[in-house]
Structure formats: structure tokens, C-alpha cells
Specification:
Number of strands: 8
Largest sheet: 3 strands, antiparallel
Order of helices and strands: EEEHHHHHHHHHEEEHHHHHHHHEEH
Helix content: 40-55%
Distance between the termini: 70 Å
Number of helices: 18
Structural class: mainly alpha
Strand order of the largest sheet: 1-2-3
């Protein structure tokens, strides 16, 4: 039924390529073929066979799409993500994850993606050390791609619908103890020590420290402060933070450079930090990492008597709950000391005995408190070499002219998380 021919040009010459006519559902379609007649005849027979099978309902659009190269589908998927307004960083992560999975599995065309091949792939990745969270992120991204193929009629159904995520074990970050922080600072090289100290005494995130410039540090102000730029903060807003005196002294010793120059040329990598932790005698499997220094900053603020609202503003958290429940880590000693600070009303203690040699309730309470404290392990506050001032952080901020004004919680509160 198919026809092979060459078209005659106005000059009277024939076209160099062969053309073919394919009949499908009673309609003729012209297709361009090859200069070689035999190759053109073979291709024309293939195209006519596909047309006949489509007419008989044996081939659908999904069948044809499943035989297309997987790279073609991925390119169109990423282009669609871009049209929908996905951030460039998000698209980059999608491309990186998908290319990794496609390369590891050896998939070539769309129909190669199956539940069985995917299950084997992820089992290999898990055996190679992929964590549950990373496992789930890759599986979610692959499922999203298959759902997109179903939506655009490239697949009849998602072949990965039966696959489920792995259970993630919460890995809550911990805060450094005083002894651990002192050991880390004492056993770290000079360049790393400055970065660790900045994080522990300012609560800045890793990315904020990496982009910190000398122009952001106002060391000559009446009350030295750090002016964070909106382009560097997590919440995309300008923030002003008072600077601890230890940081002021350290930055002055570093001899400030050009205002646009970075304060730290490089930050310790996680591999480098694990090496520093081992040198300080701190186990590397305790959940301590660079972000733990931010947890340490918040915990030490609260333990020093800082009000939660002030701690929230210094941490630049969106809610007090985030400051109190996630970033504050108190031990039994801290809670026991807080409990022993309670006392009964004066009227309730007058003229009442406890049965312990007729001591008053107040006296018996003091003795019990003394005995309890003697039996509890003691955490020295000097083991960090006076890194934090003993006085509680103030709820007032000092302006450039030396005048103190109350901090406006609603004004300084930001929408950042972590």
C-alpha cells in the first residue's frame, strides 16, 4: 500500500532523497526518507506497519512514547518544570538526581523503568550507604517524573506506585557541652578555630558565615554589631545582631581588610570538622556537626538566663516554639536547678515542721537541695575560657549614638527557620 517516489523539481531534476506515502485510516501521509533506495524501502515498510498497527488499536501513544529515548523525556520534563516557575537550584537538583538514577540503573528508554529494576537499584544504593532520607528524596523525584509521564500520556500508569519510602530515623542535632566546645576550640587549627568561635558566639548559619564580609562588621560602633545583608540570610531580610566582645577582639586582631572582602577565605568542610572533633576527643557519631554550634549558641543563651523572646530575636526564628523546642537542649542538671529555685509562699512555711528535728520546711528544703547538688555531676562554666559573658543578654539594643532603646519583638522577629 505504501508508495516510494522522488519529486520532480521545477528545473526538471529529481530530489536527492526518496519520499514515501503512508496510508493510515484512509489518509495518505508523505514522509521524507533517504538517498539510498533500499534503505528508503525498508524504512517505508516499517512506517506502514506501524500505521497499520495503530489503525488496528495495537499501538497507542503511550506505546510509542515508551520506546523513545529516556533522555528526550527528561529534557522535556525539565523544560516543563522551568515553565512552571521552578527555581534554578531545584531544577539542578532534579537533573542531578535523575541522571544519577538513570546512569546507575542503565535505563535507555522509558519502558526500562519498572518496579523490579527500580527496587534492585535502590537496594544497591542502600547497601552502598545511602541514608533513608536521601533514599526517599531520590525515590520521590523518580515517582514525580513518572507521574508527569502519565499526565502527559506517555505512560498508562506509574510503574513505581507500589514502591514505598523507607522509615527515617530522626537524627536530632545536639548542642556541644562546655567541655566539648572548649576541646574543639583548643584542638582546631587557627583558621578553623575562628570560624567555630564565630558560629558559637553569634549563632550565624554556615552560609551566612561563608558570605560574611568585612563591611558587614561594625567594630568601631559604640555597641559593635553585625549587619547581615538580605542576600545572605535564610529569610531574605536584613538583620542586625549585637557582637560578643570575644568576637570583637578576634576580628580586630585579624586586621580587617577591604569592605567587600570575605572575612573567612574558606570554611572547614564536614570531613575537616570530623577530623577536628577526633583531635578534640569527641566521638563523631553523636550527631554533632557545624550546625550544632548554632544549637550551642541558643542553649547557652537560655542557660545563662536569657529570656526566650530575646533568644528568639538573636536566633532570628519565626516563633518562640522553634527556639525553645528545637534549638534549646537542657540536661537534668539544668532542669534540677530550675526546680530547686521554687519555694512555697511565706505563710505556708511559718510555724510548720517537717518531722526532721523540727526543722522548718524552708530549712529542710535547703538541706535536701544541698545534698542533691553534691551528688550531681558538676559542669564547669569556666571550661570554655570565658567564651560567654556571665551577665544575661539584655533586651535592649544600643544605637550608633549610644542611646538604648527597647527591642521591638514584632519588628525584629523574622520568618527564618533554623
Amino acid at each position: 500500500m505504501a508508495k516510494l517516489f522522488k519529486r520532480t523539481l521545477r528545473s526538471g531534476a529529481k530530489t536527492t532523497h526518496w519520499l514515501g506515502k503512508v496510508c493510515e485510516d484512509g489518509q495518505w501521509h508523505t514522509v521524507s526518507l533517504y538517498p539510498d533506495k533500499q534503505a528508503s524501502e525498508t524504512e517505508l515498510r516499517r512506517l506502514q506497519s506501524l500505521a497499520d498497527r495503530r489503525s488496528a488499536g495495537l499501538i497507542t501513544e503511550q506505546t510509542e512514547a515508551a520506546a523513545m529515548p529516556l533522555a528526550t523525556h527528561l529534557t522535556e520534563y525539565l523544560a516543563d518544570c522551568q515553565r512552571q516557575g521552578y527555581a534554578e537550584k531545584h531544577i539542578y537538583m532534579i537533573r542531578m538526581m535523575m541522571n544519577r538514577l538513570i546512569g546507575e540503573a542503565g535505563w535507555k528508554i522509558l519502558r526500562d523503568i519498572s518496579a523490579e529494576s527500580t527496587r534492585k537499584l535502590f537496594n544497591r544504593l542502600a547497601d552502598a550507604g545511602m541514608g533513608a532520607a536521601n533514599y526517599n528524596r531520590h525515590l520521590t523525584r523518580l515517582k514525580a517524573f513518572c507521574n508527569w509521564c502519565v499526565k502527559h500520556e506517555r505512560l498508562l500508569a506509574n510503574p513505581l506506585a507500589s514502591l514505598s519510602k523507607r522509615k527515617e530515623i530522626p537524627n536530632r542535632r545536639q548542642a556541644f557541652t562546655d567541655d566539648q566546645l572548649a576541646a574543639l576550640l583548643a584542638n582546631s587549627p587557627e583558621d578553623g578555630r575562628g570560624v567555630y568561635l564565630t558560629a558559637a558566639l553569634s549563632g550565624l548559619r554556615r552560609g551566612e558565615i561563608r558570605q560574611l564580609q568585612w563591611g558587614d562588621l561594625h567594630l568601631t560602633a559604640v555597641e559593635p554589631f553585625i549587619q547581615l545583608r538580605a542576600t545572605t540570610t535564610k529569610n531574605g531580610r536584613d538583620d542586625t545582631l549585637p557582637m560578643h566582645k570575644e568576637l570583637v577582639d578576634m576580628f580586630r586582631r585579624m586586621r580587617p581588610g577591604h569592605p567587600n572582602a570575605k572575612v573567612f577565605a574558606a570554611l572547614p568542610t564536614m570531613k575537616r570538622m570530623r577530623s577536628d572533633l577526633r583531635a578534640a576527643g569527641i566521638p563523631t557519631d553523636t550527631g554533632l556537626c557545624f550546625h550544632s554550634l548554632r544549637h550551642t549558641f541558643c542553649t547557652r543563651l537560655v542557660k545563662s538566663g536569657c529570656r526566650l523572646k530575646a533568644a528568639q530575636q538573636l536566633m532570628r526564628h519565626s516563633t518562640v516554639e522553634l527556639t525553645a523546642k528545637v534549638y534549646t537542649h537542657l540536661g537534668i542538671i539544668d532542669t534540677a536547678d530550675a526546680l530547686q529555685g521554687l519555694s512555697l509562699p511565706k505563710q505556708a512555711t511559718e510555724g510548720r515542721a517537717t518531722g526532721t528535728d523540727d526543722l522548718s520546711i524552708s530549712k529542710a528544703h535547703q538541706m535536701a537541695h544541698q545534698t542533691t547538688c553534691e551528688n550531681l555531676p558538676f559542669v564547669s562554666s569556666t571550661c570554655v575560657n570565658n567564651l560567654l559573658a556571665s551577665e544575661s543578654p539584655s533586651n535592649a539594643k544600643t544605637t550608633m549614638d549610644g542611646q538604648e532603646t527597647p527591642m521591638d519583638g514584632d519588628k525584629n522577629n523574622t520568618a527564618g527557620d533554623g
